[in-house]
Amino acid sequence: MLKLNFTKKLIAAAACVAALAAPAQAADKVYRLKMAETWPSNFPIFGDAPRNMAAMAEKMSNGRLKITIDSKNKHKAPLGIFDMVRSGQYDMGHSASYYWKGKVPNTLYFTTMPFGMTAPEQYGWFYHGGGMELMEKVYSKYGLLSFPGGNTGNQMGGWFQKEINSLDDLQGLKMRIPGFAGEVLAKLGAKPTNIPAGELYTALERRTIDALEWVGPSLDLRMGFHKIAPYYYTGWHEPATELQFLVNERTWKKLPADLQEILRVAMRTAAYDMYIQSYHASAENWEQMKMAYPEIQVKSFPSDVIEAMKAANNELLAEKAKADPLANEIIKSQLFYMQKSRVWTDISDKAYLNSLSSN
Amino acid sequence: MLKLNFTKKLIAAAACVAALAAPAQAADKVYRLKMAETWPSNFPIFGDAPRNMAAMAEKMSNGRLKITIDSKNKHKAPLGIFDMVRSGQYDMGHSASYYWKGKVPNTLYFTTMPFGMTAPEQYGWFYHGGGMELMEKVYSKYGLLSFPGGNTGNQMGGWFQKEINSLDDLQGLKMRIPGFAGEVLAKLGAKPTNIPAGELYTALERRTIDALEWVGPSLDLRMGFHKIAPYYYTGWHEPATELQFLVNERTWKKLPADLQEILRVAMRTAAYDMYIQSYHASAENWEQMKMAYPEIQVKSFPSDVIEAMKAANNELLAEKAKADPLANEIIKSQLFYMQKSRVWTDISDKAYLNSLSSN
Fold first, then answer.
1. Which fold has domain A31-153+240-280?
2. Residue of A8, A16, A257 with shortest CB distance to B16
3. How large a percentage of chain A has pLDDT more than 90?
4. Strand residues in chain B grouped as ranges (E)
5. What pLDDT is recorded for position B298?
C-alpha cells in the first residue's frame, strides 16, 4: 500500500508539473531573433534606431522577445542584408531599401527620391497614401516584410571645393554621389564616383574629387569635411531618407499576435524617433561646425541648375515607368501624393517659416 | 488509510492549484484603465489618437491592459480632465496642456506657442532638449504624468471676412481666437472673443465676428467656414499644436514594468501617428475645399503686422518670465532650442522647398 500510495503521489505530482508547464510555455516562451545591420558597431543615429527598437520590444514583452544585433564588423556583409534575411540566416535586418535596386529594381522607391517628398509628406504616403501596400507588393514575393526604419530628414547637397554658378560648372565635376542621384548628375555632364567611406576625407582634401555628399550635419561632423571644403550646398537629392527594417516572413508568422504587434509598434516608434534624433543632432552639429569654422558658406544651386536636374530626374523616371508596370504604379502614386501634400506644406510650414524670416 | 490518503490527495491538489494560480495571476492580471477625453464621441483625428493608443496597448499586452475611453458626451466636463485625472476619477486623460493655464499657469508652454517651434523642432525639444523634464517639473506636484498626445501640425491663421493689409485693419477686429494668441492680438487693438463651437458658423456668416481661427483644413472642412469667408490666412499663432496624454501617478505606479513600457510606447506612437494623420487630412481636405470653392484666397499677414505681433508676443513672454522663475526657465529653454533648430530648418527643409518653388 505504501508503495502504491507513493506511486500515486508521483503520478499526481507529475500531472501537477505538466499542468504548470503547459500554460507557462505558452505565456513565457522566449523568442530570440537575430538582426543584421548594414552599419558598423556603435554607429550613431542609424545604429541607434535598431537598438532603440530592440530595447522597447524586450521591455514591452517582459523579456519574451529578445533581438540581438550583429553589425557589419561581425557579419562582414553590409550590403548582403536583403539576402541574409531572405534566406533566414538572419530573422531581421536594418538597412535601406534603395541598396537593393541592383537586385530588385523596384526597391529603389522606398527610401527617398530626388526632388521627392519631405519627411512628413513621405510618412503620409507610407501610412495613408498607399506606400505600405506598394512596398508589400515589391517585397512579399521575396518572403520579406519591409517597414520604415528611421528618417535622416533632409540631406544636404554636399561639400564642394568650388562654387556651382551654372550648368557649366557641373561639366566633368568629380563627385562622390552614389545611386539614382548620381545618374541624374551624370546626365548633366558630372562624373559621379564611388569611394569607400574611409578614403573620402583624403580624396576631398587632395582634390581627387571636387565634391561629395554624405548625410547632413548629424553624421557629417564626425567625417570632418567641414575642415577642408568651403561650400555646403542645400539638398535636392535625398529630401527624406527613410531607413528600413526587414523581417523574414517565416519568422514573423511564428510570432504570436501580441509579439507581432509589439514588434510592429517598436519598429514604427524607432523610425519616428530616429527622425527626431536626426533633426536634433543636425541642429547641434551644425552649430558646432559653424562655431569652429565660421567661414563655411551655405549655398543653394542656382535655379537653372535646379531646373536642369529636375528635367534629368524626370527623364530617368519616365524611362523606368515605361519599362515596368509596377514601377509606373509606384512613381505615379508618389507623384500624385507629393503634389497634393506639397500644396499643404507650402501654405503651412513653408509659409510660416518664410513669413518669419522675411522680416 | 483510505480517508487519510484522500485528504492527502486533496492537499496535494490544492497545492497544485495554488502553484498554478500564482504565476497565472501575475502574468494574466488584467489592468482596466478609464480615460476621459476632451473631445465629443467619434471626433476625428483628435479622438483617433487615444483610440489608436488604446488599441495598440491592448493588442501588445495580449488583453492585459484595457483602456476604455469616455468622451465629453459621457463625462460632460471637457475642460475638467486635469481635475478628474488628478483625483483618480479617471486613470488617464486626452486633452491639451494649455487648457489648464488658468489653474496652473506653467502648463501653457507644452502645447505650442505663437511664433514658436515647428513639429519636428518641438519633438526635438521634448525628447532631446529638456522639454519632457520641464513638463515633469510642472505636472509632478499634482500627481500627474504628462506625455505628448498628437500634433495637428501648423495651424492656419484663420478665416477672415476682410483682408488684413495693415495694423489698422486689426483695430476693433472681432475674432474668435482664444488663449495666449488672443492676448497677443488684444495688445494690437483686436477684440478676441470666445464663442461656442456650435455657434461659430452662424457668427461668422452674420458677421457677428469678423474672423475666427479653428485648426486647419484637417478639421476646418467639416465646420464649413470656407463656404462663407473669402480669406484663409497662413499660421503664426499655433505652429505645432501638441495634444496631451495625462496619467494619474498612482495608476502608473500600480502597473508592472512591461505594461508601463507598453503604455509609454503606445502613447508616443499615437502622438507621432496623429501628426502624420493630420498632415494627410489637411492635404486631402484642402484639395476638397479648393475644388469646391476655387475662389478662396490664401493670404499671409504683411510683414509689419507679423513684426508687431512678434513684439507683442515677446512683451507678454517677458512679463511671464519676470513673474515666475519656472516660467522663465521654460521660456528660455524653448527659445534657446528653437534658435538652434531653426537655423537647421532654414538650411534644410525650408531651403529645399524654396529652391523648388522659385522655379
1. D-Maltodextrin-Binding Protein; domain 2 (3.40.190)
2. A16
3. 90
4. 31-37, 65-70, 92-95, 144-151, 158-160, 174-176, 191-193, 211-212, 231-233, 242-248, 297-299
5. 98
